[in-house]
Amino acid sequence: QVQLVESGGGLVQAGGSLRLSCAASGWIFSRYAMGWFRQAPGKEREFVAAISWSGGSTGYADSVKGRFTISRDNAKNTVYLQMNSLKPEETAVYYCAANPRTVVVGVEDYEYWGQGTQVTVSS
Question: Do residues 48 and 68 make contact, with C-beta atoms less than 8 angstroms apart?
Fold first, then answer.
């Protein structure tokens, strides 16, 4: 059974940092590209960052470039999202997702999803 479990969300002040983790189980994690998405209330789910199966290729939404970093540890079946200089408008539920191809940005490209972790940035 494929499972993705996010953790690390919480409440942080504007300008602060959080590190999200996503632990995978039940499948061959190292063969999948991984992505992070977020969804704010009343808004569509949007792409944040993605990383290839090897970690050699990454992609970011323009709004987070230079502040967020995606990484993975295939030995631990875990993908991370380091978020710095957080802004109140980045308050959302953050989801990790997996796809068997490469660094892609579309929600429809991802095959497996976690349940999400809430990130709240106060002003």
Answer: yes
Chain center to CA of 110: 12
Rounded to whole angstroms, the Cα distance separating 85 from 114 reads: 25
What is the distance of C-alpha 22 from the center of its chain?
A: 8
| DSSP class per residue in the chain | --EEEEE--EEEETT--EEEEEEEESS-GGGSEEEEEEE-TTS--EEEEEE-TTSS-EEE-TTTTTTEEEEEETTTTEEEEEE-S--GGG-EEEEEEEESSSS---GGG--EE---EEEEEE-
pLDDT digits (tens, 9 = 90+) for 20-51: 999 999 888 889 999 999 999 999 999 999 99
